[in-house]
UniProtKB/TrEMBL annotation:
GO terms of biological process kind: carbohydrate derivative metabolic process
Organism: Devosia enhydra
Recorded superkingdom: Bacteria
Limits of the HTH rpiR-type domain: 7-83
Name of the featured protein: Transcriptional regulator, RpiR family
Listed GO MF terms: carbohydrate derivative binding; DNA binding; DNA-binding transcription factor activity
Amino acid sequence: MKTLAQKSFLGRIRAALPELHPAERRLGEFLCDFPGELASYDAQELARLANVSKATVSRFVRRLDYASYEEARRHAREEQRSGSRLFLSHPGDANPEASLVAAIAQGKANLDQTFTTITQAEIDALAGAILGARKVWIIGFRASHPLADYLQWQLIQVVETAISIPGGGETLGEHLASVRAEDCVVLFGLRRRVSEMDAVLDYLSASRAALAYITDEGVEIERRARWHMRCHTASTGPLFNHVSVMALCHLIVTRAIDLSGAAGRARLRRIEAANDGLGEL
């Protein structure tokens, strides 16, 4: 069993809650709901937000086995960078109109910040690699899985070899064993990343396939990937904002269709003819 010092920031709070005095417990329950507040504010500001005294804050962090408030704050910041959605929540965010305006503004800011670092040349190069590949593998786990499915669903309009993996009941190894140097792989690595992500990157790097790695902005440049496209995902609420990721997917597919020329248009016509003939739509 982990000792208190071995637990995560939130794990320490949850473990200590039953033994805390009422004011300390009120602070602990507040931080369980809004842990990002300790990462963002000093002790006096946190005391005011939680409606407790500064002395209560000091006693609370010692109860959690931290030497000081700053040590607790550093631990909270480390956990914040890991991507826990709880760290995105803030008290007093209940005004619906203000929330809508803030969410729209944040989405626009994410788009602006994302496409200051991702160039048209990179998107064109990736689209060209996708069109020239023997097979296109699109990989996503957790929150990245529906984004991988979305990219595959759009790409299939022009690239019949695009596949999203792993599917239900499948292991990744069943597919990665077939990846070749003449293939293209699009790997989504958005927060929170699965523990085997590093091993997946190693395997794909060894395969020598053209690798595009799509992540959030918190990831250092990945040298094992030919393209590393970092999307800003900051949010005003408890879930990450993936507007910029969807925009990037749209641009990749649009450029692939543009660059496919006559062959791409012919496939689109065949798809439409098949849809008409089957009466599916």
